Amino acid sequence: MNLRGLANSLTRRISPNEPIVWKQFIKTYRDVLGNTTPQYRDVAITGNIQPLASDDLQHLDNINQQGTFMAVYTNSAIEGMRRGEQKAQDMLVFRGQTWMVVQVLEDWRQDGWSKIIVKRQEVADVYEPPQRPRGPAQIRGL
Predict the structure, then answer these.
(1) pLDDT of 97-124, one tens digit each?
(2) Distance from the CA of 62 to the CA of which of 25, 33, 53, 132 falls in 20 to 30 A?
(3) pTM of the entire structure?
(4) CB contact at 8 A, 36 and 86
(5) Among residues 65, 64, 72, which one has the least CA distance to residue 113?
């Protein structure tokens, strides 16, 4: 039984599902200098995005993070970081902002849904590939 489907039929009247781009982690790329960059695949999904409940905020106290957080209910198998497997966390893009998966609170894949906590990424937090070195003419402003 898909409980999220039943609950979602009621909650989307108040909080409609929203389009989300799921940046699903694929692998880590290592360049010749040994620098690593996570590689992602973009997948279009929908989800119900809600403010965190007080119980969810207690989970954040235990992992000692600060920032802007939301809860996302979705039918997709979104995952957090798994260090032992060298897996970076998935990312979500919605409302024009990038959000990092902090924790999967409820994983009910057998029933087709999950509840995750995401943290909004500040501009400095979002990975940008290094820029090519500038030549002398560009440095002098010519």
Answers:
(1) 999 998 888 887 777 788 999 999 876 5
(2) 25
(3) 0.72
(4) no
(5) 72
